[in-house]
Design a protein that fits this description.
By secondary structure, the protein is of the alpha+beta class. It has helices at 71-86, 99-108, 125-136, 148-160, 194-199, and strands spanning 2-6, 12-16, 25-30, 34-37, 46-51, 58-61, 65-67, 167-170, 182-186, 205-213, 217-225, 228-235, 248-254. Helix 1 crosses helix 3 (125-136) and helix 2 (99-108) packs across helix 3.
Length: 256
Amino acid sequence: MTFRAIDSKVYGANVRSAPSFGDNIAGYLNQCDSVEIVGPKQGDRWMPCKAEGHTDEVFVSENVLRNQVSEPKERLVRECVKQWLRFDKEAGKEHISPYHNYVGEFWDSINLGHLDGTDRDTPWSAAFISFCVRAAGGYDGFRYAAAHSKYTHQAIRSKLDNESGPFWGYKISDHKPQIGDMVCRRRTSANITYDFASTHDAFKSHCDIVISIRDDHVSTIGGNISHTVARVNYPIDASGHLSDSGRVYAVMKNML
């Protein structure tokens, strides 16, 4: 038995009652949902599997599957997708009910529960990341914070000082982003660099969590993007490294 994860360009995939296209859709799985492969491929693409919510064997196209990564990474990316769905696939806005309460839960995860989505002058993207990491579980030592710079600095120092930690911070030329990593970018035109972040832990920045790898980009999910939980694509070059376009200055490797 092999477990695989959904990895579709449209952030989900149909499962079917028979190994073919047609009027046989048995359900829908979201990005990063897992399935258990229960037999050999049928035809040119159809993998028999057991899927959550289905008691009978169903079929999914091989081209929307990826190999699973470690369970802590899978938990993290599933939590990101869960929150993206909770915000109605980017339709839910931070200041509107019930979404402002969800933002309040993000703040509460870092003991700032007096804030919620109606506090629109207070960026909550780092609170979102902290919430997802905490909810995933197992990321002992992570520096939960209201500013991305805090845990980015921690990750870079862990790498440079060869210390254990749930994330290590790399220059974008030194690590190809993978599932469960974080992409770090500047929020302003200020000259924030990897070297600067290695010696400072207070600066304006933003991080998103990688949930999918494509030929020319990585797909991520982050918070407080256009006032919601949203997907962002970051270009990668032919070797798989992040482009420094879009103010990207570092990538945090998930060490679990």
